Amino acid sequence: MFDGTTPNVVTPDAMTEGRRYSMLEQAIAMAGALSDEPDFSTFENKTGLAEDMKFLASMPELCDVTFLVGDTREPVCAVKAVLAARSRVFHKLLYNSYSPQKKKEPMSREKKIKLFLKRSSEPLMNLQGQQQGRQGPQGNVHQTLIVEEFEPDVFRQLIEYIHTGCVTLQPRTLLGLMNAADYYGLDELRKGCSGFVQCCINVDTVCALLASAERYIQYKCTKSMVQKVLEFVDEHGNEVLNLGSFTLLPQHVVRLIMAREELRADEFTKFQAGLMWSKKHCDNQPNTDLKEVIGNFLEYIQFYKIPANILMKEIHPLGLVPYHIIMNALAYQADPSSIDLVKLSPNRTRRSHDRGMSVQSDHLGSNTTLSSSASSEMESGRHSSEGAIGGGGGSSPLSHGREM
C-alpha cells in the first residue's frame, strides 16, 4: 500500500562517497598511530663492553699506569682515564700529583718577536704545541705507583670493578674490597660489599672474615662489621671453635674469642680449640714448645666446669695443664666452698669490669691489632712470650695505626 511518503533511496554515488570517507578516516587513524611509534631503537651490549674493558685492563701494553701492590709489589695495570672518570681520588692521584712546575723565566723582547714570527709561519705546529701543553709534561708517560694499603687480590678486584662495573664478591677479600671502595670513593661498591657482609656471615666464612678484619682493622668500615662477626661467633661458639680454619687466626684473635663471656661454647671445646691451634703453630714453627704455646689460652678456660672424668682421662695425661689447676678444679667440684672462685677464674672477674672491643696500637702507632679491653690489660706482662709466640698463620702487623 502506498502511504504517500517518499522512500529513502541510496544512490550509487552516495555509497561510493561514503566508502571514500570511511577509507580516509582509516588512513588518518593509521597515520596517527604510526606517528606515535618512535622512529628509533636503543641497542645495548653492556656485557660485551664489560668484557672488552676487562680485556683492556689485562693487557699491559694497552695500559698507561701500573700499581705495585702489597708487600710483594705485585703489578696491577690500569687505564688512567678510566680510573679518573670513575673515582675522584684516582683523578687527584693520577693527574694532580705532578711535581711543582718551574717558574717561567721572563722572555726578552727579541725572543718574543722570534716566537711571534714562528707561530705566524707555522700554524699547524703551533696548534700541536698547544695540544701537548694541555696534556702536561707527563701526558704520555707510563706511570708506576706503589700501593701498600691493600692486598694484591683486593686491589685487582677494585680495578676490575672500576673498568667493568662488576666484580665477584668473596668472603676472603670482602672486607678489604669494602675498605678499598671507601678509600677510593666508590660508594656503590662499598654499599654492595656492606650488604653482602650481612648475608655471608656463616660458619664457613667467619674465620676468613676475622682474618681479613685483622689486616684492615684500622679502617672504619671494618670496625663497624667486626662486632657483628664476633656476635655470630658467640652464637655458634662450639661450631666455630671446631673449625680447621680456626687454627689460621692470629693468636690474639683466638684469645679475644675465648675471653668473651658471651661465647656459647663449653669449656672442654675451648680447651680442644686451644690445643688444636697450638699444635698447628708448633707444626709451622718446630722450635716452639707445645706446653708454652697452649699456656697462652689456659687462663680463659674454666676447668672447674669440665667433668672430673674428662679432666683425669683426657686432659691430665697430656701433661699440658699445670697440676694445681686440675686439683683446684676437682676440689671445687667436690666442695665449692673449699675453693675461692676468683682463684679458679681470675680473669673472669677482671673481664667483668670492661668488656669493650678496641683497637690497640703501640706508642709509636706503628702496629695495630684487633683486641679487647680485658685482654689488653694483661699484654704488658706477656710481651716476653708474645715475642716468641705468634699467630697460627703468622701475625698480621699493619703498616700504620691511624684510622682511614
Automatic annotation (TrEMBL):
Residues 63-171 form the BTB domain. It comes from the Eukaryota. Residues 358-370 have a biased composition (Polar residues). Residues 347-404 are annotated as: Disordered. It holds the Pfam family BTB. PANTHER family: HL07962P-RELATED, SERINE-ENRICHED PROTEIN. This is BTB domain-containing protein. It comes from Cherax quadricarinatus (Australian red claw crayfish).
